[in-house]
Amino acid sequence: MPERKTTDINASSPVTVLSGVGKTRAAAYARLGIFTLGDLIRHYPRAYENRGDVRMLSEARIDGKTAVILTVGSEPRSVRLRSHKSFLKFRAFDESGVCDIVYFNQDYLKNSFPIGSTFRFYGKVERKGKLYSMASPVAEAWTETVPLPPLWAVYRMTEGISPKQIAKDVAAALALLSADGVDPLPTYLRERHGLCTLSYAERNIHSPTDWQAVTRARKRLVYDEFFCFALGAAMSSRSAKQTGAPICENGDITPLTRQLPYTLTDAQKRAIDDIRRDMATDVPMSRIVVGDVGCGKTVCAAAAMLIAVQNGRQAALMAPTEILARQHYADLKPIFERIGISCELLIGATPASEKRRIKQALIASHPAVRLSIVIGTHALLSDGVEFSAPGLVVTDEQHRFGARQRALLSEKNAHAHLLVMSATPIPRSLALVLYGDLDLSKIDEMPPGRQRVDTFAVDESYRERLNGFIRKQVDAGGQVYVVCPAIEEQETAPDELELRDIMPDGSRREEQPPLKAAVKYAEEMQKVFPEFCVAFLHGKMKSGEKDAVMHAFSQGEVQVLVSTTVIEVGVNVPNACLMIVENAERFGLSQLHQLRGRVGRGTRKSYCVLVAGGTGAVGERSRARLDTMRTTYDGYAIAEQDLAQRGPGDFLGNASDGSVRQSGGLVFRLADAGEDSAILTDATADARELVLHDPSLSQYPALLERVTELFAVDQGLIS
Ligand code: ADP
Ligand code: MG
Fold this sequence. Notes:
This protein is α/β, with parallel strands linked by helices. Helices cover 35% and strands 18% of the residues. The two termini are 35 Å apart.
């Protein structure tokens, strides 16, 4: 095998260029989504072991690991057991006590602990009577003069790889790549915001000298994530507009409006005018209609679809869930039918023969037999769905789809007009990043006569009263939603510090209360209300099951529906009048606003109760934050607050289950916590300024390389 020159190695080199990383370990890394050296370096610690929190034996933590500084007091003795096993044992002490230290099957350590030498041991301290013991603690030689690092990175793990190996490989990757030493960020920007260098940041996020270093490192890396994303978005924007879209200049929407039991609001009329103007040219429309829950976006989409069909074209409406697709179909099919326009539903659950028929009808060349409108889920993106005369693609509740699907969508329909509907009012700064490539129509007016959903923020002490309130609502014929956060994947041990929980001043975010899980919660609820029918809904259920539950709820057969956030989007059950959100502090305010929008859709007086988990000061504080919801009903004001408090994570295309923490792209690994919105604003402004002066980043080749790595690669991956 020819020897590889170090200069050939860059962030895109596979992890196997590291010595000791073979096929097996590479496969383990692949499971963590790590393929390249760059991926490895961006496998940031999920937490840090707080080894700098040194305690006396007598004050060791009982709920986790402790760092103690002990002096060896007896010579290590090796004790042989049967079956080739052995252990090494010695005593060590500090001022508060004596500790037995044991290592299993590590006889080679025998000479590592001479009597009188001092170590920092890190591990679980047990106590039996007066004697302490530690099994296989991490040991680091300790001296007065050279301080030991206080923090040790803890990584997300997978089978087949040890924490030590990850740490070693990360260090090796850093050593290889820092050789070239070019900081991709223009110096003037680094100076403008007082950011550390990239190599400092990468080194200190993995093996920090102290908390302050972690904080500085994090700030730089967060800035880079935003900056590169914004640059990538600006550079790949559709601003260099193509042509070739079908010109749809003859549109008359009166056949639609005539059927409506209401008149359009001025804001709706404006949005439809924007759409009409876009569609009348051969430049493909890329427009997003943003408007608060219930402002009436669907009818704007319907108008656009009608215009497309009137011009001899087809239209597709794509919803993020089957529930929502069915609902749109139920609402729109009768309207289009009365105008003599064919409309079908195509979702995963559609029987195969039916699918075949619909696909056939979509590619029919003769307008008389051609299917004009298809409503569905991302099933519409799947292979084999083609249009003989594509005109318009509408995606509803865009933030559920994420940038990648949008890319796929526009690729597949390069010449079709694209209309995006979003109920998440997006803060202005973020809209530039997320939808920089889209024109914006804002529906900032609600249909007249909408009732306000009275909102309360409470804590556990209100449980009894809350149950009474539920009973009262159901007895009066109403229905209730209860939303619980999705279950967390990984628990952080109590002695570890989670990276995302570090506050800007280096202090730690508060402990989180335990979460309520939907299924278990529903069982409890059923016991409290034996006379009601309680059902649950979560993202892992099959779509058929979900639909059945949702149908039963909309028919009033189920009175209390316990759910994860799968119901967040678009669902319409006018008889529902009470929305309860458990562990509400886990949600972004915008998400809560969306959830609140599920009630108050009919004639019943409606309520939203936000239950903050945690007790004492924790509960107090989350309640104070949630109190915003009590006084604010404007989705935009809430969105701005949300961005300020929690950062952009919630706006960046959540996972389909709406799990609170996961963000859609791989781009933002660190930039997720609440304190980052100021950095976001800076980074976005900087990116726009830079692209204005140097659209192709010709003066900054290292930056271009990094943007390509962080943005383009990621965007290209279609999951
Ligand atoms: P969203 O913007 O959340 O998608 P929808 O399009 O589902 O909202 O509309 C919510 C409800 O408001 C629907 O029942 C719809 O019929 C009704 N609606 C829409 N526009 C108006 C209007 N101008 N006046 C009265 N009701 C309207
Ligand atoms: Mg909608």
